[in-house]
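quick one before i forget lol
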Amino acid sequence: MFSLTMIEDFLKNAANLKNISRQGWINKLSLENPESVADHTFSMAVIGMIISDLEDLNSEKVLKMILLHDIAESKVGDIVPDKMSFEEKQKLENLAFDEIIKVLPESIIPTYIEIWKEYQENNSTESQIVHQIDKLEMALQAKIYKSQGHSKEKLAPFFESAKSSITHPKLKELFTKIVDE
């Protein structure tokens, strides 16, 4: 049994992502009003919808994975790689994720946990695509910031990170199109 209040708690956590700024843009570009984690997730979802449909992947799983992949940040914030070890970050985010989803109906919790773990383990086609979409979206946002006059030099690490992470042919092609325009 579940209550609407429980679902409301989950929705409040998800909505809080609109208030969490993407820290990398603050640190590297000194932006006062960078995209939020929710902005990033929405953009990833649009990319994920298109790519998973074109590649005949499990679109529902890809979209759920995208929507869940940063949900823990509603509690812990957007932690950039140089702030703590990968293991510490993962542990912190796992605890936050567990706390966030425990309010959901028991009938759907196992599915969300499975999708969360699959994303973390990065051992399925869908999880690998989502990780690469994460980087592609970052490159797209970097391109937007570049068009707004931000330094090519300061943006270079974002483009390099995406370039080295994207291996899927369609995503690689899209990355090249984004960067070369």
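fyi The CA atoms of residues 87 and 93 lie 10 Å apart.
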